[in-house]
Each structure stands twice: as structure tokens, then as C-alpha cells.
Amino acid sequence: MPSVARFVGHVESVEDLSDLLSDSRFTAIPKWVLGGGSNIVLLNDFPGLVLLNQIRGIDVREQGDEVWITVGAGECWHDLVRFTARSNWSGLENLSLIPGSVGAAPVQNIGAYGVELADVFQHLDAVHLGSGEKRIFSREQCQFSYRDSFFKQTKGEFFIVSVTLKLSKKYQPKIDYHGIQAALEQRAWVNPSVLQMSDLISEIRAIKLPDPIHVPNAGSFFKNPVVPETELPRLRADHPDIVSFPQANHKVKIAAGWLIEQCGWKGKRVGQVGTYAKQALVLVNYGVRNGQEIIEFAEQIKTDVKSTFGIELEIEPQLIGSTEGLARQY
């Protein structure tokens, strides 16, 4: 769907960012940092400055079996994963084929197949858009949680410059997540290499999830809800096949895709919006001209899930152009 920003700034260095922030034309208007744009929904035009994060570069420091890698926030995430897998450094392989930029990864605390960015994250460098102050954020300061972080909660306040991760030369594959074990057995892989695991994850994702270049979508549209484990008996009483995963602190993660599918929404289409036939979590844009149509479709799904299971689904992508979002930006 077409959306227009009032201004767009290409940022290839901290100096570029400083020049834009000191420009009097942009001082008092909203700002939004954009990476690959794969996890956003555009609701209308943006009346401010969009900062395209195009800071590149990869710096590697090896220390024994540890590999410290500092990556420019504008680098492509999947390209980074493939670079580390080919180097036989483990830690990112289960996060293969996730679209978007490196700088967006900590905002979302991206995760897949039993691994989250927080597992390998060390620190990041950022610039405060209001003051121009440079800051270093530790893992604790990023306040990572399930598909959330300090940066997602403080929309528009910081521009992430680089991200530092700690990987390992000692490979301990994480293969106990649903679907991986079966795929390994099918290929008769007993001790897959880091690169083989990256290939495997990429194949699994390609089968289940549509390529946004060919099928417009924003990835998983809903978070998997996390509920107290005391809720599980109630849910299983009426829905014995419910898909769940134990979490820390006496919590249970429920598969949102399963909930949506049980409500009859998998593969369903209303007008120019629908759910993907192979994965109910993904909403597909078949030609929508207004982002609000996608939100209205999502709200219908949320209402059905709430009515059927008593569980509130939460939208995962960031909404750009809403009144609420603009109020929290610089």
C-alpha cells in the first residue's frame, strides 16, 4: 500500500545522522528509523523524517573458542547469519531467513526455533535522536523479553548504529524445537554442521512462510501468547490438542497459529486481506490500498480467538502512522 514520508534521510554513518539531526528543518518534526521495513504496517502517510539505516560493516574479534562480532545496523540480517554459518561460528543458525536488518533485530528481540537474539547479544551502540547523545546499551539495559525490548517501547527515540554479538566455535545445535528433529531424521543428519543447520532452517521457513518480495506480508502478525501455567488445565479441558510450550517463571507459551486455525481463519480471505494458506499467523496483502483494512481484519481474528479461548492476541509488527505512534516520537 502506498505511503509517503515528508522527508527521507539516508544514513550511512554516524556523521550522516549528526548532520540530519542538526538540520533546522527536522528539529521539531517526528522521526522514524527504518531498516528493511519487513515488520511494519503503514497506516497512512508519515508527516516527518524517515531515517533509512544503511550503516554497514562487520568487525570480528576471535578469543579462544569465542567470536565477538560487531555489525553495522544497516546490514541484512540473513546475510550476517550466512556469513557466520559459513565461518562455522554458531549462535545464529536457528535465526536464518528472518527478513530485516541487523539494527531491527534487538528492537524486536527476534527469535525462531528455540533461539532469541538475546541469547547471543552483548551490547549495542545507539544515538538518542532528541539530544544526539551516543550511548552503549548492555543486554540488561535493552530489557529484552518475548518479541519486545526497551527500543520497541520507546519508539523513535534511538537510532541503533551497531550490534555486538558473542558466538562460539564449539557447536551445540539446538534441535529440540518442533519440526527440526523430524527434518533432520528425514535427511539422516546426525551431527549437522552450522551451515547445514542454517540450510535446514531456511528450508523449513521457506515452506511455511511466504517470501514478502513475492507475497506481501509482515511476517508473523501475532505474538504467541504467554499465559500462567495454571491456565493450561482450563484450556486443555475444552481443547485437549492445544499446542503449548513451557516457559520460565511458571508460564506457558500458546501457539497463536494453532488458535487462529481452530477458529477457521487459516487461508481465509476478506476482500484484499487474508491469512496465508500454509501458516495462519501470516496476514497477506492481496492489494490493500489502506493499512487500516489489515488492522480491521486482524481485529476480527483477535475477537474470535478471545471469544473461543479467552486469550488476547497481540499484534507483532509495528504500526506506523497511527496517532498513538506519532505521540511517542521525536
Provide an overview of this structure.
By secondary structure, the protein is α+β, with helices and mostly antiparallel strands. It folds into two domains: 1-210, Uridine Diphospho-n-acetylenolpyruvylglucosamine Reductase, domain 3, CATH 3.30.465.10; 222-314, Uridine Diphospho-n-acetylenolpyruvylglucosamine Reductase, domain 1. 28% of the residues lie in helices and 28% in strands. It has helices at residues 14-21, 77-86, 104-108, 139-142, 150-153, 180-187, 194-208, 232-238, 256-262, 291-309, 323-327; strands at residues 5-11, 31-34, 40-42, 46-53, 58-63, 66-72, 111-112, 115-116, 121-128, 134-138, 158-168, 217-220, 226-228, 244-247, 251-254, 269-270, 273-276, 279-285, 318-320. Strands 5-6-11-9-10 form a five-stranded antiparallel sheet. Helix 2 runs antiparallel to helix 7. The longest helix is centred in the last third of the chain and has 19 residues, at 291-309. It is globular and about 60 Å long.
